[in-house]
Structure formats: structure tokens, C-alpha cells
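Figure 3 (text version): C-alpha cells given as input.
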């Protein structure tokens, strides 16, 4: 599986994909957001993954981990999530957080535990998604999850650099 780093020209296609899977599209082009896409045979986005790094660079907000409905239940979501963890760890992050009201069991299988939403809001207050959720009143309805990041063997290749994440 070759992931492509999202550049400015990729943001509209990624945003369209994220809307179809009902995920947040704000701040996709922010400098603190790192995103990758998996494209299908017709160059359409069929998967995505990424994170937004906090000001302290120790905490990240996992974002945009999604698989096209036709490709679910084959382990691709797990691979995409682990790719984001690997990249965030390579960038120095020690702790991952995320919001999810619907996918708790998926994230728990990857080691996430329910977390204090207010704690997430404090350590990642500068992120696009946290700011959006506060502005819109959505923050108080969200469910937070957290997980300590540890070194692991990367398994997904980044076609942009031709490498797998290294630590």
C-alpha cells in the first residue's frame, strides 16, 4: 500500500472523501496538519490518515483515518491508523489523542482508552479541530480517547518519499 502525502492540490479531493465518510474537514491545509491518502485505480481517494501536531510537539490529534465503505473490514483502517502513529512518533510525539463518538471499539483494539475531553482540550488547544469544536459547540458532545505512542515497526510505505516511517 502506497500512501501519498497530501499537498495543496489534493485538499479538495480529500475534503470530498472525508465528507462522504462524515469526518471533519476543517484545517486540512494548516501547517500543523499532516495527511496522507490512498488512491484507487481511478486515482480517487479510497483511504486517508493523518494527525495534527500540538504546539509542544509531544501530543498529536489523530485525524482523518478513514476507509471507503467498500474497502472496510479488511484491516486497511488499522494499517492507516498505525501509519499515522508511526509518523507522529518519528516527529517526536509521545501521546496520541482523538475524538470519536462512533468508532470506540476500533480505537480500543489499537490501544486507545477513554480520555478526559477537557484534558485533550488543554494539551491540544491550538489545533484546528479543537478550536472548531469549541467555536461550534460540538466540543461538549465529543468523546475523547488517548494512547501513549511507542516505537513500532512501520509497515506502510509513503510513496511521496519512497520510505516507511523511521524512528
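Below: residues designed for each position.
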Amino acid at each position: 500500500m502506497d500512501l501519498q502525502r497530501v499537498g495543496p492540490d489534493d485538499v479538495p479531493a480529500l475534503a470530498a472523501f472525508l465528507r462522504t465518510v462524515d469526518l471533519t474537514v476543517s484545517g486540512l491545509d494548516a501547517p500543523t496538519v499532516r495527511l496522507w491518502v490512498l488512491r484507487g485505480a481511478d486515482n480517487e481517494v479510497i483511504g486517508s490518515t493523518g494527525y495534527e501536531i500540538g504546539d509542544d510537539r509531544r501530543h498529536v490529534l489523530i485525524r482523518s483515518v478513514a476507509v471507503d465503505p467498500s474497502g472496510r473490514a479488511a484491516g486497511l483502517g488499522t494499517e492507516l491508523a498505525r501509519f499515522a502513529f508511526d509518523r507522529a512518533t518519528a516527529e517526536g510525539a509521545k501521546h496520541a489523542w482523538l475524538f470519536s463518538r462512533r468508532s470506540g471499539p476500533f480505537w480500543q483494539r489499537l490501544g486507545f482508552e477513554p480520555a478526559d475531553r477537557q484534558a485533550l482540550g488543554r494539551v491540544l488547544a491550538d489545533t484546528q479541530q479543537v478550536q472548531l469544536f469549541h467555536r461550534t459547540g460540538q466540543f461538549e458532545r465529543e468523546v475523547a480517547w488517548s494512547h501513549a505512542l511507542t516505537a513500532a515497526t512501520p509497515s506502510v510505505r509513503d510513496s511521496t518519499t519512497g520510505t516507511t516511517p523511521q524512528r
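Residues 76-90 form the longest helix (15 residues).
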